[in-house]
User: What shape does this take?
Amino acid sequence: MRRYLLALLLLATSAARAHAQHFDLELSRDSVKLGEVLVLHARVHIGPQQTLASPIAVVAEGLPDGARSVGADTLRHQPDRTLLIGDMRMAFFRTGRLRIPPLRLIVKATPDDRGFLLESEPLYIEVVPSLPAGSPTLKDIRDQVPEPQVDPLLVVAAIAAVAALAWLLRRLLARRPALAMPVAVASDATPADLARAALSRIEAEGWVERGDMGRHYEAIAAVIREYLESIDPKVHAAQTSTELLRVLATRRSNGTWHGTARLFGDADLVKFAGVSPDAKTARAYAAGARTVIDAWASPEDHD
Assistant: This one.
């Protein structure tokens, strides 16, 4: 009983914090012409004692093809200190209905706090052609652009750069530590067995020893995402961390959801905020991934 009460208390605390801090994003218009600048109005609500790690929001995912960020304002505190506002500007060079991915901020309770991620919801914009139907083509404009001329010196420099890169790659591969033997997986292996084997292969790569923490965290987070996708048809590995955790919240778990959220949060901090954990913390991250996979694999932990 105490265990269930503690789980309910943690969920209530998380819900209260999510209600207190939210990131609202609003479009200045519903549609824009090709190449026209769209303004996104941001309103960020945080707690009275909280601050932002950076006053400029970043895109949580890559922008879609044909979309470009052309500027972002510094988020400005309003008199009550719990509301910040600012604008971000984008231009679009492909027609149709385009998805604007969520924007992301890191909220900190104290200067030494690692903080947590706060995301806006994705939005959609209709991009229409700048010329009406039936207008003459732009062939005359294109014909006026002179044919590019290849500088022989640039060709020689490019060949030399490729040769230098090939030499450097051979040196790096020669210094790369030998990988451990592949982990054998039985033919009747479960999704959890496959995920554990994938984690062992990641550790054998030696990215922690080589200081490549970003690749280490990204690979482990991908294994967790693919495992969750294999056990829950509502989960998709390509979802953002926020979207994926929202789906998992509908499953009954004894703290497993919170452990999964911490792992995704740590990976996002490394990927998007440039956090560089030490080797001990990185190895513990792999151990935490195994614990979460074991917990989700337990029939007593979820429906």
